[in-house]
Amino acid sequence: MYHRFLMLMGVSLTAALAAAQGDFLSLTRGDHVSGTLLDLSGGIVVFDTGLAGQIVVPVSQVRSLSTENPFLVHLNDGSQLEGRFTGSGVTTRIAPESGGEAAAISLAAITRIEPVPERPSEPPSPEGPSRSPAQFSWETGYLHRWANEEYDAAFARLTLRKQAGGFGLFSENLLELADEERFPRLFRSTLDWRFPSASGLQPELGIEAERDLDEGLEFRGSLNAGITRVLIDEPNRLLEVTGGLNAAFEYYDAGELWQDSGNRLRERIQRLYYADERRREQDQDINLRLRLRFRQVIRNGALTQTFSLYPGLTGFGEVRARSESSFRMPVTSQLNFRLHLLLDYDDEPEFESTDRFRTSIGAGFEWDF
Question: What is residue 131's DSSP assignment?
């Protein structure tokens, strides 16, 4: 089972890294090329494919074009556009960096392109760093879960982000809207504070709360303290690692594993199945907390991958892990469609009868406020 988990994690991380392909050129003859756009002028596209070298293609043979970085685009009518090329099907658009609506464009109408120059940074205000407003997003959708039981459920997710100078706040809350008699059957909440630092290492504090009745977990509360190092911080790409300690307080109840199905025979069989388990358990653990977070903008969407590992210090050899992957595609300026995959692993679950793996896949619509 452990090898299965490593294989799944390897696939998810490989997918995340494979997403970082740079620019993308689709040709009418069916070829798809990734690399770097060097020039587009006079009806000719010059594209660097890396190992295969540079290719020169007439715009009449280009189906669509996507770029990672923005360009200043000069058109044959004297007007200018600024933004990233985004290709979908046979249409190429210019997506402004400000987040406005992308405009369709004909590559044949482009006379030349220029890289967007870096804008000079504004001098610091005498009143201190500017404070950006908090950003909220609300998501509702449907998920399918494989765990001790296999079932479908609606869910809701609330996300909060706040950045003020070097200080950062991030919170995410997931609530499963299923099983009214045991509501909430699944609940997760995280809150992380990140503090400014003159060095490249940023102190981070966090709180976690969780409830997952599918493994008999009535409540888990955690305190986190660690250091984060941002390795890549670009408009279209982020890679950071976090290391620290996690103190967890857990309350389990094996009775939550008995399903109130209305079928007395089934309930008796389940009670016999869990008869060797102690009904209630409490546990306190000190763990290491290692986290890898990756985000990559891919054409019109964004891929996010977060992998968290909790090797036990009080229980030697015990390890918990969590992988969260999502792909976010804009529908309008404030509405997004989001796919997600959640994978939890517990090397030594509290009740031996429960599965080590819990997986859910879902989709929903996300509103930004």
Answer: B
With left for phi above 0 and alpha for psi between -120 and 50, is residue 176 left, alpha or beta?
beta
Looking only at Cα atoms, what is the longest distance across the chain? 80
* 3-state secondary structure at position 232: strand
Residue labelled with tokens 């991030």: 170
Residue (of 341, 311, 338, 339) closest to 323 by Cα position: 341
Say whether 240 sits in a helix, a strand or coil: strand
Position 116 confidence tier, pLDDT thresholds 50, 70, 90? confident
Joined together, the tokens standing for residue 322 give 């969590």
Q: How far apart are CA 137 and CA 229, in angstroms?
A: 26
pLDDT at residue 298, rounded to an integer: 77
pTM of the model: 0.64
**Dist CA 115 CA 25 (whole Å):** 18
- Structural domains of the chain, with CATH: 17-115 (no CATH), 134-251+281-368 (2.40.160.40)
Q: Which of 288, 305, 317 is nearest to 343 (CA)?
A: 305
Q: Which residues pair with 55 in a beta bridge?
A: 47
Average pLDDT, the chain: 82
Cβ 227 vs Cβ 205: under 8 Å: no
**Lowest-pLDDT choice from 78-82, 231-235, 241-245:** 231-235
Which contiguous run of DSSP H or E holds residue 16?
helix 2-18
**Residues 187/175, Cβ–Cβ less than 8 Å:** yes
- Helices H, strands E: what count in the chain? 2, 22
Closest CA to 223 of 196, 187, 192, 195: 192
- 298-331: pLDDT as tens digits: 767 889 999 999 999 987 779 999 999 999 888 8
Give the number of other Cβ atoms within 10 Å of residue 345's Cβ: 23
**DSSP per residue over 153-214, as a string?**
EEEEEEEEEEEETTEEEEEEEEEEE--GGG--SEEEEEEEEE---SSSEEEEEEEEEEEEGG
Token pair recorded at residue 1: 């089972």
